Amino acid sequence: MSETTDWEQQLRANREEKDRFFAEHPQSPVPPEHRDGFEGLDYFEPNEDFRVAAVAEVHDEPEPVEMETTNGPPVRYLRVATFAFELRGEDCELHAYRQENSEEDTLFVPFRDKTTGQQTYHGGRYMEFEPEGELETGDTVTLDFNLAYSPFCAFSETFSCPLPPEENWLEVVVPAGEKTPELE
Q1: Is 173 domain-assigned?
Q2: Distance CA 155, CA 161 (A)
Q3: 168 Cβ partners below 8 Å, 6+ apart?
Q4: Where is this chain compositionally biased, Polar residues type (predicted)?
Q5: pLDDT one-digit tens code per residue, 22-67
Q6: CA 8 to chain centre
Q7: Rounded to 10 degrees, what is the CA torsion of 7, 127, 116, 75?
Q8: Is residue 116 one of the residues assigned to a domain?
């Protein structure tokens, strides 16, 4: 067995905790009739190549972006930052958002890639990024696609989830994070 790194051990522990939550918790997005047979989410193997250094550009006057949802009216977010990085030899860019009037520091990074609709949920996947301190233009941060996850609407149509805007559609294959949920 190969030696695992701290981030990989933490990733595997987070995945186990999430699987327990999805199997047992009353607020799990897995419909109750599927929880008994739920044996955990399907993930791509952890891969350090999908932990990328990204340069941040912070938008002092964030523009509003209206995101379509899977089941309901569009929602408004503010484009607060842009992350530029290289992935699989391609120059890429993802925008990070915050809901309008939100006081949270967490940045929402919805995206699609070339696995969307095939190996991963057809509505795209999400990442969240929590900056350490005040994020400033020129800061280098780590975007970890191993943490990419399917929104709750991938498990049940009762949820309404924002769809990644076209500006966050990557033209590369990102086999990292969660795969399409399969419920029995």
Answers
A1: no
A2: 11
A3: 94, 95, 109, 110, 111, 112, 124
A4: 1-12
A5: 999 999 999 988 888 888 999 999 999 999 999 999 999 999 999 9
A6: 17
A7: 170
A8: yes
pTM: 0.92
Q: How many domains does the chain have?
A: 1
Write the CB contacts of 40 (distance below 8 Å, at least 6 apart in sequence): 15, 19, 22, 23
Tokens of 45: 């193997």
Compute the C-alpha angle 124/130/134, nearest 5°. Answer: 135
Residue 28 lies in a domain: no
Residue whose C-alpha is closest to residue 22's, from 3, 38, 45, 1: 38
Q: Say if CB 67 and CB 167 are below 8 A apart.
A: no
Tell whether 156 is covered by a domain.
Answer: yes
Q: Which residue has the tokens 């076209």?
A: 166
- 111, two tokens: 């995206």
Q: Which amino acid is at 117?
A: G
Return the bridge partners of 54, or none: 141
Dist. CA 74–CA 92, nearest whole Å: 26
**Tens-place pLDDT, residues 142-152:** 999 999 999 99
Distance of CA 96 to the CA centre of its chain: 11
Domain region containing 89? 44-168
The encoded tokens of residue 11 equal 């990733």
